[in-house]
């Protein structure tokens, strides 16, 4: 990687950075944006923790049958749940039993994704306690098949989708994400998903799965993680002709059109989340991966585990 990056930077590599650009492993706060998220304006409406029926459909706070009788009284849940109070441990035991009954790995993947969408705490409890068994389900190799069939199994959007249609307003799109204190972004353009090639917009399964591991194994708060797919089209004819494909139906943008979109994205990320947000480039084709790492390695906190 080093020999490739040096020519791109006229001899300077990520290992030759000016000390002013590296403070405690980060980058210099050139634009005074470290406080970008602290005084950020909020939307005109007020958001508070849901109660009652809405609470049961909020994956971040829903505990299902684990709500105690006191909690059910306090949060207007009486009558909305069966009378039994089930511990998280018992819920975990039941769900692992159900997951193990599936014979097809993709069915196990879909069961885990459904759980993540309705009970986030229980999802991570399962993943942490059964990591050797479930890691191949939520990530490789099963996530590869999930990405190939993402359009067919798509139920609820996970992460943020930024396409060529959003050019010129990417900052506005980022502000649509409900969480403000983002620490880690995993972004892909879907061109080189695992060993499967160009899967376009359906590569979203990779950032979602990788960030789930960062929470389960690295302790990063789920609310601080943001999976993003940059959709610039796909050269996969099979997907372009698939009626269930969820991305742009056009050939991949290249050259100036591609890099202008990525530059707007990188600038918007820093403006919205500050200098310290970590951006991981994931499953980009090598011809773009090296270029992006060289271009933004001295201005943003970035890395690419495929080539570094």
From TrEMBL:
Residue ranges annotated for the Malic enzyme N-terminal domain, each copy included: 116-297
SUPFAM superfamilies in the record: Aminoacid dehydrogenase-like, N-terminal domain (SSF53223)
Species for this entry: Stylosanthes scabra
Annotated TM spans: none
Gene3D superfamilies linked to this entry: 1.20.1370.30, Malic enzyme, N-terminal domain
Name recorded for this polypeptide: Malic enzyme N-terminal domain-containing protein
Superkingdom, taxonomy of origin: Eukaryota
Any Pfam family: malic
Chain segments carrying region Disordered: 1-27
InterPro entries the record matches: Aminoacid_DH-like_N_sf, Malic_N_dom, Malic_N_dom_sf, Malic_OxRdtase
Cofactor(s) of this protein: Mg(2+)
